[in-house]
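Q: Convert this sequence to C-alpha cells.
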Amino acid sequence: MAMASTVMGSCVALIRPPALLLHHPAASSSSFSSLWNKLSTSSFHGEKSLVEEAFELGSRNRSMTRRCGRAMEVMAVAEVSTEYRKKVAVVRIGTRGSPLALAQAYETCAKLKAKFPELEEEGAIEIVVIKTTGDKILDKPLADIGGKGLFTKEIDDALLEGAIDIAVHSMKDVPTVLPKGMTLIACLPREDVRDAFICPTAASLSELPAGSVVGTASLRRQSQILHLYPSLKVVNFRGNVQTRLRKLSEGAVNATLLALAGLKRLQMEEHATSILSTDEMLPAVAQGAIGLVCRVDDYKMEDFLLAINHEDTRLAVVIERSFLGALDGSCRTPIAGLAVRDTDQKCIFRGLVASRDGTEVLETSRKTWYNEVDMFNAGADAGKELLSKAGPGFFDR
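A:
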C-alpha cells in the first residue's frame, strides 16, 4: 500500500495510510489520552499541517468517532515524530563539490564512523555540497578575485547559520583568522606535502626547453619556478584536478604542478611525472592538511572531531598558519612554509616569501619544542622576521 508523504526541511516524514491508522489498536485504547498528553509535551517540532492532513484523511471514514479521530491524530504525530528522528542526519558535513573536496569529506565521514558506531547507521551523516566563490569564478587568477576565503566563505556561512554542523576544508584555503563563532577543532593525518610535476614531454622542470609554458594558479609555485628557471613562462591555470589534467593533455600548457596530496586522495598519483623535493619547491602553508571546523558552542560536534584529530598535523598547521598570519598572507602573496617533527622530537620549520617575478626570495627557519605555545610563537617570529626583511612593496614586484 502506498504511503502518504510530505517534505519537512530536507527530510521526508512518512505517515501511515488512513486505513492502517483507522484500525490501529490505539484508536480504541482507553490509554490514548495519556499518550496524547505525553506527545503534546515532547520535543517534537513537526509541522502542524502534517497532523491536520492525517486527521482529514482519516475522518473521511464516517464510522470513525470523534474520540477515535483524536487517537488517529495521536498516531499520526507519533509516526511522523519517529520517522523525523530517523531521517534527520546526526552530523551534516559541509564541503565543496569538487572530486577532491568530496574525497576529503568522505574520508572525514569514514573516520567518524570508525570511532562512533551510531554514525554507521544509514542517514546518520549527510554530505552537504556548497558552491563557493572560487568555484564559480574560473576565468580570473585567484589573486584578482579576493585571495583567501574564496573556497571557504559560503561553507562557513552555512555553518554559522546552522545549515551544517561541520565544515571540511583544505587548510591551505582557510584564512588565518576564522569568522567569529567558529573554531578549528581537528585535522586529519597530513598527506604528502610535496608538489608533483606533470608533463608529457619532459621528466622535470629542469628539462623543459626555454620558453616552455607552465600552468599554475599558485603565486607560490610561480615565483619559485621563475626563481629557479627564469627562462620558463608561467601562466594562470585554474580548475579542479581533472580539468587541469584535461587542459594539459589538450596542449593548453607544456606542464603543470599539482599538490601530490590531492592526487593521492583521488588515487591519481600515476599522473605525476616526477615529485619535487621540498628543497626545490617549498609547499604552501598547511598543504596536504584537512581541517575540521564547527561552531564554538557545539560541544557534541567538538567531541566527535576531537576523537579523530591528528595532533601532530594540527600542531604543524598551527606554526605554519602563525607564520602566514604574521605576514598577513593570502592567495595574493607568494608564501611557503613547512613544519616537520625532527628525530629529537622537536619542530623544524622553514618559511619563504618571494616576489611574484621570482627575482627575490627570502627564507628563514626555526627549531622549537613540539607544543602549541612554542610553535605558535616560533611561527609568528619567523613571519615578522621576513616581513621586516621584505620591506614595503616587496610582494608587488
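The longest helix spans residues 66-87.
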